[in-house]
Amino acid sequence: MSQAYFDHNATTPLDDAVLAAMMPYLQDRFGNPSSRHGFGRGARQAVEEAREKVAATVGAHPSQVIFVSGGTEANNLAIRGMAAVLPVSQIVHSGIEHPSVAKPCRDLQQQGWKPRTVAVDRDGRCDMNDLAQSLRESTGLVSVMLANNETGVIQDVAAVAQSARAAGAWVHTDAVQALGKIEVDFASLGVHAMSLSGHKIYGPKGVGALVMDKRVELLPQISGGGHEKGLRAGTENVPAIVGFGVACELAVNRMLQDAERIGALRTEVERGVAALGGVVFGGAAPRLVNTSYFAFPGVEGETLLMALDRAGFAVASGSACSSGSTEPSAVLLAMGVAAELAKGAVRVSLGRANTRQQVQEFIAVLQVELGRLRSMLSVELV
User: Fold this and answer.
1) Are residues 127 and 237 both part of a single domain?
2) Where is the Aminotransferase class V domain (predicted)?
3) Residues of 94-131 as b/e, b for ≥16 C-beta within 10 angstroms?
4) In the predicted model, what is the mean pLDDT of the chain?
5) Least CB-packed of 16, 133, 141, 188 within 10 Å?
6) Of these residues, 105, 126, 248, 321, which one is catalytic?
7) Cα 145 to chain center, whole Å?
C-alpha cells in the first residue's frame, strides 16, 4: 500500500538538489571550518556561502545569521539569551506559541520574570488590544510567531513589533513555519530576533538559524568556543548548513508556484471536510496555503489519525513536538475551542509532491472512516 504524506509542517522530505549539495561535505570535503589548512578553509567558505544564502532569503545581512541546530534551539537562544542581558521585568508571548517559546518564557519565572500570555481571537489571531494592555506594564521581551504550526494562521508581526518597540521591549518571532511559504523579511517585520529551521523547507534536520539585530546583546546558551561569533559554541554542521542554504534558495524560487498549486489542493481538502460535517479552525484568518486543521464533532482525533494511517495517509493531530501528549491542543484551547472538539483535531499540511488524486482519495477514505467510527460510537451509545 502506498503512503500519501500529508504532514509537511512536521517535516519535509529532503530535496534531491539539497542532498546533492551536501554529499561532498559528508565525504571528501570533511574539514573542520575552524581549521586553518586547506580542508578547513574550504569548509569555512561553504559555511559562509550558505550564510549569505540564508540571509538573502529573509532580507538580512549575513553577519546577522547565527547557525544553530534548529528552530527549538533558535527560540531558546533568543528568549533565554536576550532575557539574560535585560533587566528582569515582564515577558510576553501569544497564547498559540510553539512549546519551545512558551516553556522558556515560563521557566524564566524562576529568575524573577513575569510571564504574560496575550489572548488570541477565535480564529487564532493575536488580540492587539490585549497586547497593548499587557505592554502597559514594564516589558523586556515580546515573542509572537509569524505563522502557527497547527492552524497555519499568519500573525501581523510587524504591528506587534511596532507596539512592542514603542513600549521599549525587544521582539522575537518564530518564523519556522512561515519560511518558504510566505515572504519573510527581517527588516520589514521590525523584530530584533527571528528563528528559522531547515527541515521545514525540504532541507536537512539538525540545522536552523537565529537572525539577530546586531545592536541587540545576546548571552550564549552553549559556551566553550568562539564559533558563530562567540554566540553558539560547537563545530558547525557543515553538510547540514550547506543543505540549508540551498533549500533557502529553492524555497524562494518555488514559493509562488508552490502556493498556487498547493493552495488549490487545500481548498479541495476543506471542501470535502465541510461536506462531511467538519469544522475548520482559523478558516476566517489569513493562513499558510498548505495547512488545514479541522475536527469532526464526536470523533476522537487520535483514533481518526490512526485509521487514516492504516489506510495510507500520514496526517497529524497537532504539533509533532507535542505528539506524546493526550491533552487537547493548547493552541485550540487558546482560541476558545471546546476541549471535546479540540480532542478531535486533525492537521493536514500539504507539500510539493502531493497531487489532486491523493486529495480525492483522501476525502473518499475520510468519508469511509468517519462512517465507520460514527457507527461504532452509535453502537456504544445504545
Assistant:
1) yes
2) 5-362
3) bbbbbebbbebbeebeeeebbebbbbbbebbbbeeebb
4) 95
5) 16
6) 321
7) 8
* Helix (H), strand (E) counts: the chain: 12, 12
Note if the pTM is more than 0.90. Answer: yes
Amino acid at 309: D
CA distance 294 to 48: 42
Last residue of a domain, one of 249, 283, 306: 249
- Reported as a single tens digit per residue, the pLDDT across 6-58 is 999 999 999 999 999 999 999 999 999 999 999 999 999 999 999 999 999 99
Residue 191 in grid coordinates: 523584530
**Helix, strand, or coil (residue 297):** coil
243 shares its domain with 259: no
* Closest residue by Cα to residue 214 from 193, 197, 233: 193
Number of domains in the chain: 2
Whether residues 242 and 280 share a domain: the answer is: no
For range 188-198, the mean pLDDT: 98
- Cβ distance 51 to 227 under 8 Å? no
Name the residue range of residue 176's domain: 16-249
Are both 52 and 162 inside the same structural domain? yes
- pLDDT for 318 equals 66
Number of C-beta neighbours around residue 366 at 10 A:
24
> Is 152:288 a contact under the CB 8 Å cutoff?
yes
Confidence of residue 324 (pLDDT cuts 50, 70, 90): low
211 neighbors 52 (Cβ within 8 angstroms): no
What integer pLDDT is reported at residue 219 of this predicted model?
A: 96
As a whole number of angstroms, the distance between CA 85 and CA 80 comes to: 9
Contact between 115 and 143 under an 8 Å Cβ cutoff? The reply is no
| 321 catalytically annotated | yes
Give the residue-averaged pLDDT of 263-291: 98
Per residue in 78-92, pLDDT (tens digit) is 999 999 999 999 999
DSSP reduced 3-state for 283: coil
Classify the C-alpha dihedral 261-266-269-271 as positive or negative: negative
**Cα 331-305-346 angle, rounded to 5 deg:** 30
Sequence-distant (6+) residues with CB within 8 A of 319 are 98, 99, 149, 150, 329, 331
